[in-house]
Amino acid sequence: MTIEAGRIRRLNEAEPNPKGRYVLYLMQQSMRARFNPALERAVAEANRLDLPVVVCFGLLDGSNGFPEANARHYAFLLEGLRDAAGHLAERGIAFVLRKASPAAVAVDLARDAALLVLDRGYLAIQKRWYGEIADAVSVALVQVEGDVVVPVDIASDKHEHAARTLRPKIRRHLGDFLEPVRAVKVKHPATRLGLKSEIEIGDPAAVLAGMVLDRTVGPVKRFTGGENAARTRLKAFVGDALSRYGAERGRPEAGAASHFSPYLHFGQISPVEIALAVRAAKSGTAEDKDAFIEELVVRRELAANHVHHTPGYDRFATAVPDWARKALADHAKDERPHRYSEEDLAEGRTHDRYWNVAMAEMRVTGFMHNHLRMYWGKKILEWSPSAEEGFARTLRLNNRYFLDGRDMNSFTNVAWVYGLHDRPWARRPIFGTVRYQSENSLRKIDAKAYERDVTRLCAAEGVTDLRF
């Protein structure tokens, strides 16, 4: 099995341990057992060394859990791990799930490993985990990129100003990395190793019930986690919505959205698999397909570029460009006709009916269409006591309620509201020269139809007492 060389990074100069009992793969970002280049690299190495493969995962909760993650996020994650564990078992690969940090699990199991394979992630917490592992293990350590199409370092070695500067760089390499990942047959099943998980993942709801976490934001019925559900959505999208994507993707009531973002966030489906399916689809025009690839690859990987090159991507002072911070500071004392507390915003208690509708979709179902996410964020800036507070509120609400919150796209899109990857516009109150979005933008959609859709979706979640 050949994985593109540009996806693979050796993190040390060690050779495989001749006394190792297995090849170990820490599955932490690419939470799937198929179309996973890191996993297939581990299998290929294990076959070469005549060893079995062990996959491990570190599950944290309580105060040590993933920052801002709650029951909604963990339910989706656990459903994904159930799928992955089942598919791994079918291939003869051991799966070890422990209640510990990813770094701690990997370091402990690496003592008996010949080689350790890691995913790649661009958030600060992921970089910290991988750094801890690299400092603590002595076995050969390999990192494989599996969650963007064009590896970030190959696309660009600097922070890009906008999509227009990254796009040609991505397009230049796109053909080199749009290759299928085929499963490698496992030569040596791991059944005799005797390794067991501390946590039985067969019943995700039972695992969730035993965790210490924030339950004020609960699981949703609208989305089921896991690679099985992700592939079902992919099949449905290329069979129907793709044919309307180019013309209707900006209208939330049109049903042309792909809804892949939660699955991409948890690594439950590969963007390469999606892109190949879209390109091969019989439905959709070339324009539909190009529009989708632009969002899936260029825009998403612009976000990866941003968080990778911006250590303070979650802070107003470091994530927002200088010109935008100055423009907002120049208008910090402008009158704000409408001001709302964060609680009012979370509950959708504003004067803006359709903003409240969008907030209900987010709060109850864990999703909001991109067109409305932009409007939603701009209004929080307008209705907050300061730009700094608006940024913090937007990020907290985003990360709390969205299934795909705490994602590289989340941090980038929130910063976009405040001027990132944009240019100065006409000056106006509060915003200065940062792009403004008025209620007139809702004229581009059928807002009443959208409200009906949200009411129906919320009712399916058991919430019917909506007040817009």
From TrEMBL:
The keyword Flavoprotein applies. One of its GO terms (molecular function) is DNA binding. Its EC number is 4.1.99.3. InterPro entries: Crypto/Photolyase_FAD-like_sf (IPR036134), Crypto/Photolyase_N_sf (IPR036155), DNA_photolyase_N (IPR006050), Photolyase_Class-2 (IPR052219), Rossmann-like_a/b/a_fold (IPR014729). It catalyses: cyclobutadipyrimidine (in DNA) = 2 pyrimidine residues (in DNA). SUPFAM superfamilies: Cryptochrome/photolyase FAD-binding domain, Cryptochrome/photolyase, N-terminal domain. Coiled coil: none annotated. The keyword Flavoprotein applies. Keywords: DNA damage, DNA repair, DNA-binding, FAD, Flavoprotein, Lyase. Residues 21-152 form the Photolyase/cryptochrome alpha/beta domain. PROSITE patterns: PHR_CRY_ALPHA_BETA (PS51645). One of its GO terms (biological process) is photoreactive repair. It comes from the Bacteria. Its cofactor is FAD; (6R)-5,10-methylene-5,6,7,8-tetrahydrofolate. Belongs to the DNA photolyase class-2 family. This is Deoxyribodipyrimidine photo-lyase. It comes from Aureimonas endophytica. The gene is phrB.
